[in-house]
């Protein structure tokens, strides 16, 4: 038996899978570039990118080739050995960032978990045991492990799971005085998303990030950028922090890094590396050769002038098309974000209709995401073609005509 072709449907979901999710009515079975097909052969234009993950579209031929090649060499070694793809990928990350050292994990939450643990370990080893306070921001999202939901700024994700870790404080995003009010010598780290993703595509202001850097330096706290959603090309630069002229002490990446293969990384400096010894943290799969080989190829393709500078042009085209749509429907008040992480801020009178709009869009053959409670989010392939953009927007127009 190689592949058994029993028919599974969306209805099977309710009988088999724990309802932590409420997936759409159709099941994608094939993808190519920015298009996916469902079980019935219906085709969709994908502006969701698997939630900012499939940064080179679906089944990119080079990624397929690399995955295939590596799958015939070696799949898994564990961390009792190192491996060639991990070392090559680490070198690429170090050469193209502020960082000197890399830790690999498997998901955004795990990279953040490592970052939070490391910031506490560093501060309590280097300064004093009470220096363990982490400051994060309301509406932030850092993953679903218990530490990361507790640091995250939406208590609905951490309530009813028993006692939460202590030493976590929340301040208001883009309001520096709310940070000044709570930071002190016991603060070990400030963590933020440069663009709050799940929270509604809200970019941090340049002055806010600069002030955070100054505060961190003053109080010997580490500045952590969670670039799980913004990293590896999404904003038009390899890392979003390059737009801000501020360097972090620790940075996490995941989503776009593997182009669809699960992998994440935490990047940091020589100074912070100094407290690390074997055994204080780890993971079985982190730095898996298959994942690292795919991620290496993903970076090779994205970190080129061609792809990165192309993002601006694609954004311009999307905004152009959205503005035409808005002339007809007055759907949104603002387009937010950076590069191809796009938030369409919906008019208050249409907020209740967002789910209907998404559903109608599926029916017309175009896929969007939401973010926060009033934003339609787009995070398409960084190499989406102009004709896919135009076709997708036409379908969006038809969907709106039927819903509004
Ligand atoms: C998606 C996301 C995470 C969590 O990543 P997982 O891979 O789902 O664990 C963390 N931080 C940010 C900013 C994200 O967008």
TrEMBL record:
Cellular localisation = Cytoplasm
Question: Is Iron-sulfur among this UniProt entry's keywords?
Answer: no
GO MF assignments:
identical protein binding; N2-acetyl-L-ornithine:2-oxoglutarate 5-aminotransferase activity; pyridoxal phosphate binding; succinyldiaminopimelate transaminase activity
Q: Where is the signal peptide?
A: none
Q: Which Pfam families match?
A: Aminotran_3 (PF00202)
| Annotated Gene Ontology cellular component terms | cytoplasm
- UniProt record, GO biological process: L-arginine biosynthetic process; lysine biosynthetic process via diaminopimelate
Task: Please give the cofactor(s) recorded in the UniProt entry for this protein.
Answer: pyridoxal 5'-phosphate
Keywords for the protein's UniProt record, in alphabetical order: Amino-acid biosynthesis, Aminotransferase, Arginine biosynthesis, Cytoplasm, Lysine biosynthesis, Pyridoxal phosphate, Transferase
- List the HAMAP family hit by this protein, alphabetically: ArgD_aminotrans_3
Q: From the Swiss-Prot or TrEMBL record, give the protein name.
A: Acetylornithine/succinyldiaminopimelate aminotransferase
